[in-house]
Every structure is written in structure tokens, then in C-alpha cells.
Description:
Blueprint: E1 3-6, H1 13-22, E2 31-34, H2 45-54, E3 59-61, H3 65-74, H4 87-91, H5 95-103, E4 108-111, E5 114-117, H6 127-140, H7 146-152, H8 166-179, E6 182-183, E7 189-190, E8 205-206, E9 220-222, E10 236-238, E11 248-254, E12 264-270
Helix pairs in contact: 6-8
Amino acid sequence: MALYMMGDVQGCSEPLHRLLASVDFSPSRDTLYLLGDLVNRGPDSLGVLRWAQAQGDSVRAVLGNHDLHLLATAAGVRKPSRKDTLADVLAAPDSPALLTWLRQQPLARLEHGWLMVHAGVLPQWTAKECIALSRQAVNDSDHFSFNFLQHMYGNEPCQWDPELTGNDRLRVIVNAFTRLRFCDAHGVMEFDTKEAADQAPLGYMPWFVAPNRATTGQPIAFGHWSTLGEVDRPDVLPLDTGCVWGGRLTMARIGNGPAATNHIELIAVSCPQAQKPGR
């Protein structure tokens, strides 16, 4: 049995299958965790979703911002953007089943010693609180129903407050787990900057270096940040290496036991460029 975590696939099914073949992945034996953004920008989001759903419990995901964008677009809440490649999913006869499967994935997982999210974690949250908030977001939003999707978008509130309620509370949770790169020492989130970690806006920092972060020491794997650059920290593992932009698709093979986080092997394949970086 092998355990794997993989960064953003974004509809790039050919590199996905090439990477899995390189390790002889078997759904009857192995487990793969997808760290969000399964779909969009790449050429075959439909193929990626169909494959992931068909693997049963051997493939488990967390939701990313592009996955939520697909749900919002399918619900008619969001218009497709110029760079979207979601039309095949929306037109597929099995689209309702695929969207139901996607909608039921959490925003965070804590398994095999790893906290897994798509983007980041606010400094006030412990690992257990992350899982509780992920469950709350799914339950309170009625599995990302039309009503919640209507109120999901927006940058405010930009800071966590445990007294927040309703859509404001859910929006902060979703934004942190699926969009976060930079925040300040108090957890105020900044969403405009997408450059490398050393390009932080004045007063902000990468979320994982925030002082007094409650998850310091807890191994966290995430995607989302293809421009991040090298990170020399034992407790964070970034796995988005820019597949859709012509970079690599990367996954980590992890151990299965008390010292699981001490055994990490990175495996990657090069990818053809599906989109050009930039707005």
C-alpha cells in the first residue's frame, strides 16, 4: 500500500495518468489525495473528474477555488471566464453525478499525520479547528448549495473572528482554505498578490510564516501557489508546480505510520503548456 498527495491537476489528464503510471498506482492497493483544483484551465477537466470519481475511496480530494468556480458556474451563479475550460463538464450527460461527487469533498483533511488544504490556513486555527471549520462550511452551506454559492464571492471579511456568523463566517473559511497566499501577523488576508513568497506586499507575509501560527509543527500539504518558490520548512509541503502553465505535475509519496511525515519522496513529470501565465 502506498499513500500519495498531488498538487493542482487543473484538467491536465495526460500528465496525471503519466505520473500515476510512473509509480504503478493501483486503486485496489494505493490511496491518492488531490489537493484541490482538479479542474479548469487544462484541456480535459471532464476526464480528470470522471477518473477521480470512478476510483472510489482510493482517490480523495479537497476543494480548490477552481473546483468551487465550476460548482458556481454550473449553478448559474458565476459566468464562465475567458480562460475557463469547463464546457465539456457542464455539457456531459453525467455532469450531475460528477458535480455531486465534487460538492461532497471537504475543504480540509487531517489524515496520516498530514493536514491537507488547497491554499492555506489562518494563524489562529489549530489542525482540529481546521477540520471542524471544513465540516461546518460543508454542512452550513448545504454542500455548497445555490444559496451559498450566491454569497460565496468577495474578499470581506478579510480576517477571522470566531463570532462571525452566516455567510460572512463561511466566506472567510472558504477564502482561507482555497485562496490564501499572504496574510499579516493578525491573519488579515491579502488576495491581490500572486507572486513568489519574497514578493509579499508591505506588512504581509506568506501564511505559513505568520508568527504564533497555531499549526506550527503540524505538517501541512497544499497546492494553489505555483509561483511560491522554494520553501525550506519541515512542516509545510507545497505541491503546485505549475502543471497547467507548462511546469510539472508533482506528487509526494508519504509513509504510513507514526513517523509518516519523515518519509517523503517527490515524483514529478513535465507538462505541456495548456495556458500562458498572466491575466
